[in-house]
């Protein structure tokens, strides 16, 4: 050490002694060189070798990816694969420089420079000297001891060389040539840590549901004659247990054991956390102190049975999640972790798989505190790390993460990216010895009693849950665009819930991985079909499947579809919690009236409401919710019920109609009007006019051929009815007066039996029709044409706000909704939800706003679907599913949708009973009402809906 530094240190020691501060800090001191997260960064000097803004020194914000700051180029992992064997890439290298000072008080301290994550090969120098071997592997915390290279009291220079691609082919195979975006740079924080020379390097805790506490304390060196003390504290900070041991000169690992009486257990439903403070002491002097949070829980895999937590079998309601945000890529910030965990729990999920690499450490903290079961995964996307490179990465991952109670499994790679040499490595660093799984996509790869095979259909799953192994797919119901996720989930979840060895699984995946391209005017790019796999959009926009999953996974499981005759306020319920009694939940019922079909009115009005505590129904038991409704409850339009969990968050809200469609339509179908219908027949066109509305029919085809609204303007609704399945031939038309109305009857041969039109003096046009089908059909009903480009929006009374599919009817409730026109194709820009186009269920009435004026369609019959215009659910080799003819359809059957793995009818049917085609073997009879204008409500206080 230079004389200047020695004199400086001596003077500092003298100052501390004179001020009574003879003991150095006993806790780890942290000095950030980068920012703390991607929203709180520091400026470093930077040079990139290729791509945008390359070949010059400039500055960059750290942490963060260089692509997101206008450097280098973008790569999607699959872009690098050619002919399935070789790969090519732009091997960008980034040079970083940063000057820093360290406190002179760090003399005689162990000082480490720590990188939480860097992509990918990272070479580090301090003051021109290499600090150690190049680190290979992107998602892992690594550190170097640099105390002998620092200059105390002077400027120090940190230089980092980061290579986007690794010099090791196995690292590229495991991390870089994958089905996700590839980035470069120091994307997680960098900091210095200063510790006493004698310190605790890391700890590993095994805290069981019995209260047994077992802890390995790993010292940084072998120490003789020191005391190690552990103090266990509850959430209030009260000490509930202590244990101590003395070090020896022969071992650097100290084992501490004790028992805490009746601890509050950790689970996803009750995430009770404890903390342990560990002190290293020499005599009465405290040399070093550290702390960890943990939870008391016991995880068991009972082979040929199931997964048990704290002695109770649990079922996994999980989702896969990438660390990703459009503006930042895989660099993140604490609020983003919180947003994601809250959204996952809002869907009533209880688990998350960290695909396909360990997440930032804060995400695991949030899972610990809010309650999610976690699979923590070693990277290995269909290719594995070599043993030489991968073994240190396993250690780095487990040492960092072992004490998180949320982690219930370790995953040794994804879909063939398993190096079997690693399977027994996880237990070397994890005292609790959690089970290691293989997240795989080929049968026969079960390990440790758990089969995680990906993308099995409903019927193959039936066989797997009857096999010897527990079945827990780590990917299923692939949610590319609008497929999968909620579609088919009801059948699949019931199968897992009711099967002994069905353990649930993890939907692929949470969010569309859309990156904001700095080289493409900041557009969000999902790389075609590759990354549009989310239940939510890139900025967490909720797709239709979000609320579907929320309903299906609701731990308050209610299957009542409609209120039965003689309903007395009793609703059957199944408690699908694993640990929570329903008396820990709260409920609210509401009697509501739907807002009337008037300008600018949507939603509903609450007439009366009541609150009650849930009944005593134990976990996984069934019972009845008893609603104390007022005597006049039948006067309301609908009954709503909301359930709230112990955390006061809404579990789900159900709505049942009280009144029939016919009763709900009375206020608009009984408007006052002139008492005449005019009839005009000219050139094979028959025109009826009432209340200033005209409708015309082609006597050669029997179809509606023209409409004028009550302002005399043409409305282009025409060319129907046409059957969407089956055939028909028009045979004739007759027309006649019927009371004050006028009737047109069209006859047919084939599947369309008849169509009967009746023009009322009010201007309402009633259409009664019947068709007969015998077989299985993707859709059934009638259709008309209308130019999509003229439509501005829709308002309706029915289920919403999202569109539905035959195998995704959940997640929508009765109300009055309004949606402005959008051309959203799910999973692509501009991510405006709910989609305007699609199948909408149980429509009572729907009003379309167009450039030509408004018109309304209503049905007094139950269970009508309305199809709006052309759309697709999945855009694979061709858009899927196939659409009915026409533009606006009124349907009795709609198609199911598959996932990325099933984009034809035969594959979709494999998703289960609800994914079969519509089986129709009888006549279907229905009535529709049309009004080409803005209908007036009847001025009758008893029938007029309240505002």
From TrEMBL:
<comment type="similarity">
    <text>Belongs to the glycosyl hydrolase 2 family.</text>
</comment>
<dbReference type="InterPro" id="IPR050347">
    <property type="entry name" value="Bact_Beta-galactosidase"/>
</dbReference>
<dbReference type="GO" id="GO:0030246">
    <property type="term" value="F:carbohydrate binding"/>
</dbReference>
<dbReference type="InterPro" id="IPR013783">
    <property type="entry name" value="Ig-like_fold"/>
</dbReference>
<keyword id="KW-0732">Signal</keyword>
<dbReference type="GO" id="GO:0005990">
    <property type="term" value="P:lactose catabolic process"/>
</dbReference>
<dbReference type="InterPro" id="IPR017853">
    <property type="entry name" value="GH"/>
</dbReference>
<feature type="signal peptide">
    <location>
        <begin position="1"/>
        <end position="24"/>
    </location>
</feature>
<dbReference type="InterPro" id="IPR006102">
    <property type="entry name" value="Ig-like_GH2"/>
</dbReference>
<dbReference type="InterPro" id="IPR011013">
    <property type="entry name" value="Gal_mutarotase_sf_dom"/>
</dbReference>
<dbReference type="GO" id="GO:0009341">
    <property type="term" value="C:beta-galactosidase complex"/>
</dbReference>
<dbReference type="InterPro" id="IPR014718">
    <property type="entry name" value="GH-type_carb-bd"/>
</dbReference>
<dbReference type="InterPro" id="IPR023230">
    <property type="entry name" value="Glyco_hydro_2_CS"/>
</dbReference>
<dbReference type="Pfam" id="PF02836">
    <property type="entry name" value="Glyco_hydro_2_C"/>
</dbReference>
<dbReference type="InterPro" id="IPR006104">
    <property type="entry name" value="Glyco_hydro_2_N"/>
</dbReference>
<protein>
    <recommendedName>
        <fullName>Beta-galactosidase</fullName>
        <ecNumber>3.2.1.23</ecNumber>
    </recommendedName>
</protein>
<dbReference type="InterPro" id="IPR008979">
    <property type="entry name" value="Galactose-bd-like_sf"/>
</dbReference>
<dbReference type="Pfam" id="PF00703">
    <property type="entry name" value="Glyco_hydro_2"/>
</dbReference>
<keyword id="KW-0326">Glycosidase</keyword>
<feature type="domain" description="Glycoside hydrolase family 2 immunoglobulin-like beta-sandwich">
    <location>
        <begin position="205"/>
        <end position="297"/>
    </location>
</feature>
<feature type="domain" description="Glycoside hydrolase family 2 catalytic">
    <location>
        <begin position="300"/>
        <end position="521"/>
    </location>
</feature>
<dbReference type="InterPro" id="IPR006103">
    <property type="entry name" value="Glyco_hydro_2_cat"/>
</dbReference>
<comment type="subunit">
    <text>Monomer.</text>
</comment>
<feature type="domain" description="Glycosyl hydrolases family 2 sugar binding">
    <location>
        <begin position="53"/>
        <end position="196"/>
    </location>
</feature>
<dbReference type="Pfam" id="PF02837">
    <property type="entry name" value="Glyco_hydro_2_N"/>
</dbReference>
<keyword id="KW-0106">Calcium</keyword>
<keyword id="KW-0378">Hydrolase</keyword>
<dbReference type="InterPro" id="IPR006101">
    <property type="entry name" value="Glyco_hydro_2"/>
</dbReference>
<dbReference type="GO" id="GO:0004565">
    <property type="term" value="F:beta-galactosidase activity"/>
</dbReference>
<dbReference type="InterPro" id="IPR036156">
    <property type="entry name" value="Beta-gal/glucu_dom_sf"/>
</dbReference>
């Amino acid at each position: 050490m230079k004389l200047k530094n020695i004199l400086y240190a001596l003077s500092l020691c003298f100052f501390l002694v004179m001020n009574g501060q003879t003991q150095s800090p006993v806790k780890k001191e942290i000095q950030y060189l980068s920012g703390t997260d991607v929203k709180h960064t520091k400026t470093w000097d930077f040079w990139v070798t290729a791509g945008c803004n390359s070949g010059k020194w400039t500055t960059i914000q750290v942490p963060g990816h260089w692509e997101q700051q206008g450097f280098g180029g973008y790569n999607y992992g699959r872009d690098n694969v050619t002919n399935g064997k070789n790969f090519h890439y732009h091997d960008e290298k980034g040079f970083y420089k940063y000057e820093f000072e360290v406190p002179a008080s760090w003399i005689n301290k162990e000082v480490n420079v720590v990188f939480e994550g860097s992509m990918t090969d990272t070479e580090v120098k301090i003051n021109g000297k290499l600090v150690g071997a190049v680190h290979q592997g992107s998602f892992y915390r690594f550190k170097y001891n640099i105390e002998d290279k620092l200059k105390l009291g002077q400027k120090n220079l940190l230089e980092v060389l980061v290579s986007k691609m690794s010099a090791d082919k196995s690292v590229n195979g495991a991390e870089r040539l994958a089905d996700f975006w590839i980035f470069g740079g120091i994307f997680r924080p960098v900091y210095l840590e200063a510790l006493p020379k004698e310190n605790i390097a890391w700890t590993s805790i095994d805290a069981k549901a019995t209260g047994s506490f077992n802890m390995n304390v790993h010292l940084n060196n072998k120490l003789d004659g020191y005391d190690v003390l552990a103090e266990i504290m509850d959430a209030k900070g009260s000490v509930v247990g202590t244990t101590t041991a003395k070090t020896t000169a022969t071992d650097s690992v100290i084992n501490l054991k004790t028992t805490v009486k009746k601890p509050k257990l950790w689970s996803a439903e009750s995430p009770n956390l404890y903390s342990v403070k560990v002190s290293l002491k020499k005599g009465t002097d405290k040399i070093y102190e550290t702390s960890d949070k943990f939870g008391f829980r016991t995880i068991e895999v009972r082979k040929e049975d199931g997964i048990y937590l704290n002695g109770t079998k649990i079922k996994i309601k999980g989702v896969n999640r990438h660390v990703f945000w459009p503006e930042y890529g895989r660099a993140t910030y604490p609020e983003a972790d919180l947003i994601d965990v809250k959204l996952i729990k809002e869907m009533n999920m209880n688990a998350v798989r960290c695909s396909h690499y360990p997440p930032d450490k804060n995400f695991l903290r949030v899972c610990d505190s809010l309650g999610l079961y976690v699979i923590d995964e070693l990277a290995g996307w269909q290719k594995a790390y070599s043993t030489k490179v991968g073994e240190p990465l396993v250690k780095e991952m487990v040492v960092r993460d072992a004490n998180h109670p949320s982690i219930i499994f370790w995953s040794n790679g994804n879909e063939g990216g398993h190096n079997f040499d690693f399977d027994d490595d996880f237990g070397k660093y994890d005292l609790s010895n959690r089970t290691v799984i293989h997240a795989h996509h080929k049968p026969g790869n079960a390990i440790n009693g758990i089969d995680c095979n990906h993308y099995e259909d409903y019927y193959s799953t039936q066989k797997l849950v009857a096999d010897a192994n527990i079945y827990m797919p780590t990917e299923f119901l692939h949610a590319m665009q609008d497929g999968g996720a909620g579609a088919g989930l009801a059948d699949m979840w019931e199968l897992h819930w009711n099967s002994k060895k069905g353990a649930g699984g993890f939907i692929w995946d949470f969010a569309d991985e859309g990156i904001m391209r700095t080289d493409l005017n900041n557009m969000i790019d999902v790389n075609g079909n590759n990354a549009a796999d989310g239940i939510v959009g890139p900025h967490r926009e909720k797709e239709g499947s979000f609320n579907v999953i929320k309903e299906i996974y609701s731990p308050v499981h209610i299957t009542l579809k409609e209120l039965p005759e003689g309903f007395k306020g009793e609703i059957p319920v199944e408690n699908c919690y694993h640990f929570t009694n329903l008396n820990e939940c709260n409920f609210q019922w509401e009697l509501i009236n739907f807002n009337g079909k008037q300008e600018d009115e949507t939603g509903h009005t609450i007439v009366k409401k009541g609150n009650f505590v849930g009944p005593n129904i134990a976990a996984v038991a069934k019972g009845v919710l008893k609603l104390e409704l007022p005597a006049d409850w039948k006067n309301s339009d609908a009954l709503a019920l909301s359930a709230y969990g112990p955390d006061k968050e809404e579990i789900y809200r159900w709505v049942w109609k009280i009144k029939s469609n016919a009763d709900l339509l009375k206020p608009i179908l009984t408007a006052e009007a002139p008492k005449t219908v005019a009839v005009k027949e000219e050139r094979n066109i028959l025109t009826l006019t009432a209340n200033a509305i005209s409708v015309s029919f082609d006597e050669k085809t029997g179809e509606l051929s023209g409409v004028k609204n009550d302002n005399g303007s043409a409305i282009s609704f025409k060319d129907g009815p046409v059957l969407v399945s089956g055939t028909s031939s028009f045979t004739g038309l007759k027309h006649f007066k019927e009371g004050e109305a006028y009737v047109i009857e069209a006859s047919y041969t084939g599947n369309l039996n008849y169509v009967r039109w009746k023009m009322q003096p009010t201007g309402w046009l009633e259409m009664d029709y019947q068709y007969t089908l015998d077989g299985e059909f993707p859709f059934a009903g009638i259709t008309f044409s209308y130019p999509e480009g003229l439509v501005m929006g829709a308002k309706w009374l029915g289920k919403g706000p999202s569109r539905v599919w035959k195998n995704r009817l959940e997640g929508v409730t009765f109300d009055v909704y309004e949606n402005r026109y959008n051309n959203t194709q799910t999973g692509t820009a501009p991510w405006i939800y709910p989609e305007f186009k699609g199948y909408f269920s149980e429509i009572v009435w729907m009003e379309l706003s167009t450039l030509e004026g408004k018109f309304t369609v209503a049905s007094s019959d139950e269970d009508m679907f309305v199809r709006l215009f052309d759309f697709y659910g999945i855009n694979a080799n061709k858009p899927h599913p196939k659409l009915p003819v026409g533009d606006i359809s009124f349907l009795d059957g709609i198609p199911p949708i598959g996932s990325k793995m099933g984009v034809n009818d035969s594959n979709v049917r494999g998703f289960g009973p609800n994914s079969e085609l519509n089986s129709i073997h009888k006549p279907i009879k229905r009535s529709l009402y049309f009004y080409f204008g803005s209908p007036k409500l009847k001025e009758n206080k008893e029938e007029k809906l309240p505002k």
